[in-house]
Amino acid sequence: MTAQEVEVDPVGAGQPDPVISVRDVWKVFGPKASEVPKSPELCALSRRELMDRTGCTAAVRDVGFDVAPGEVFVVMGLSGSGKSTLVRCLTRLVEPTSGQVLFEGEDILAADEKRLRDLRRNKFSMVFQHFGLLPHRRVLDNISYGLEIRGVGKAERAKRAMEVVDLVGLSGYEKSYPDQLSGGMQQRVGLARALAGDPDVLLFDEPFSALDPLIRRDMQNEVVRLHREVGKTMLFITHDLSEALKLGDRILIMRDGKVVQVGTGDELVGAPVDDYVRDFVRDVPRANVLTLKWIMRDPRPDDVLDGPELGPDVVVRDATRAVLAAAAPVKVVRDGELLGIVGDEEILAVVAGQEADA
Ligand SMILES: Nc1ncnc2c1ncn2[C@@H]1O[C@H](COP(=O)(O)OP(=O)(O)OP(=O)(O)O)[C@@H](O)[C@H]1O
To answer: Rg of the chain's alpha carbons, rounded to an integer?
Structure first.
């Protein structure tokens, strides 16, 4: 393998057992919806053609992915690509037409009503764009509402609610009513409410889309911080690439109900599978996303190999100073093995945004 042929791990390889495992999931709305996934002929049609032929909308088409424990997995796509329907299929708020959804190995589609209720209450929590707060309840009571439904005692509820109030930066607002809070603060209440039940998985459906850009950035930072502190598995839906890149360990790009590509941010930017993804990532500041493994090259006979060493996963932006300051190219090394080298030329090409077209 040359330095330029970057090895991309297959999805989930070398990972612990997934928390969520989705296979061949379809959601078709319309008459005789269940016939569509069974028919290779209908499956081959575009969404539009399927609609014209059968009157059905294939919101989610043959989608599969795994989410690892503690991972932030982002589903990204434009409006109508099927993100919301997909995430709702995971907890059967929308009933999938066909396929398999496993949660910690358990077949969700086989769960009865009681088990499903139990899973929704105890294992998953959802944060929506519209906060869905109860207007006549104070912040603390909104946060503990889910625990109340579960039958948790008053003292225990209050204690848990206070813990998450601190966690999401709402201290001092415990007694406020939702309409006394800004949008960002209301979404913090939504976050706290989701965290209060100590779920295994947090599902976010475009939670920050309605917030203005500065508040939105604050809330994204909040999610990054929370994830660092509580380490929950998170599945996050967004139509915003920069949000996806900021939050996601891996990102699934959806288009017309289908998966286009799943990968880490640097894989999407470094090796887009098609023009659609390439267009999507075109304006991403590459130096902030690409890592050294994407820009290193094989040493040439005349290269001096006594430069400093850096790992292949160091982000270009973070390596820039070290590379430019070094007299010899930086050696990209993993476990003592020289993978390639990076010199001023490679760094400057990315920083200047030229290397993609070179
Ligand atoms: N209940 C329904 N009945 C019929 N069609 C539906 C239904 N729900 C969703 N759809 C269709 O399925 C497709 C995917 O919708 P979905 O809301 O999942 O997309 P999305 O990516 O979440 O978009 P947005 O960000 O605008 O919500 C759309 O064409 C939508 O019109």
So the answer is: 23
Rounded to 5°, angle at Cα 247 from 352 and 22: 120
The span from the CA of 20 to the CA of 9, in Å, is 19
Regarding the beta carbon of 21 and ligand 1, being less than 6 Å apart is answered no
Contact between residue 292 and residue 305 where contact means Cβ atoms under 8 Å apart = no
> What is the pLDDT at residue 3?
47
- Look-up of token digits 């330095």: 3
Say yes or no: ipTM exceeds 0.95. yes
> 90: alpha, beta or left, given left = phi > 0 and alpha = psi -120 to 50?
alpha
pTM higher than 0.95 for the full model? no
Residue 82 Cβ < 6 Å to ligand 1 = yes
Tell which one of 26, 50, 57, 76 to mutate to probe ligand 1, the residue whose CB is within 8 A of the most ligand atoms: 57
d(CA 229, CA 175): 25
Judge if the beta carbon of residue 123 lies within 6 A of ligand 1: no
Residues 224-279: pLDDT tens digits? 988 888 889 999 999 999 999 999 999 999 999 999 999 999 999 999 999 999 99
Residues of the chain below pLDDT 70: 1-15, 131, 353-358
